[in-house]
Predict the structure.
Amino acid sequence: MEFAYLGPRGTFTEAALRRLPAAKGAAAVPMASIPEVLDAVRRGEVGAGFVPIENSQEGTVTLTVDELVGGDPLVIAGETVIPVTFVLASAKAPAEIATVASMPVALAQVRKYLARELPNAVVHQALSTAQAAQRVVDGEFDAAVCPPFAAEAFGLPVQAFDIGDNAKAETRFVHVTRPAAPPEPSGNDLTSLAVYIDHDRVGALLGVLTEFAIRGINLTRIESRPTGEGLGRYAFFLDCAGHLADARMGEALTGLRRICADVRYLGSYPRGHAETPVPAPEGMTDADFADAADWLAALREGGSPR
Ligand SMILES: O=C(O)C(=O)Cc1ccccc1
């Protein structure tokens, strides 16, 4: 199995991919951008892709979420979470740095550092932190904001370590495939969905949330993303605790299907970090649903239920 990932070598994505159990022994194929990774998966050129999706400091990696919500269908099959620390990589001393480059999600996390230490430097966007380091080596920019291992991979001196504005920043990365059955439940899973509501209907979002709340399903993330149809037209990206195979998740999904303009299932997969799973509340276990279904079937057959 080949994994395409956001490259070149030296990205945080590459480091996170090494921690993904499903990628053990797999060939890692660097791609220039997030859309290129996802398109290679869609075209079947690689079996899987690996891209950043969420940062604890900056929030959503919009390129990834928008592709999942609105692009040709893909599903998430796994995730990893790693801490991210940034360095200023350059052959020049900070006083001589006139241009600095990185990926927007990285630049946003060193905003205070750049304003304080390099107030006159012109900031440029790159497709990844390691691509910025590559372009410094090529002479295009003076400095890159990148992981320490990217500076090392590209032979760039580090002018400053730990320049992130939040020392506790973490990033979440996802393993994506073409639509496929999910991995078996692990006991601590997430299910991702994109939900399109009827935007003119008052209380439509409350209706969506109710489907989860009444079945004891915890949401770990809800994000609105523009559909591109105009102002006020948004889709919701949701991460829900639980697996597609859980009876209560199945019931919530069929409930959404009935009340939403559209629902896109985006995968059930084991959580990549140590969150304690929220157990099914009383009356919401698979056994409770099976018992209730048996009871109803017996009523419909005219028998006398237990
Ligand atoms: O550019 C990289 O190295 C990435 O993997 C994307 C990224 C950028 C900044 C923080 C986390 C991930």
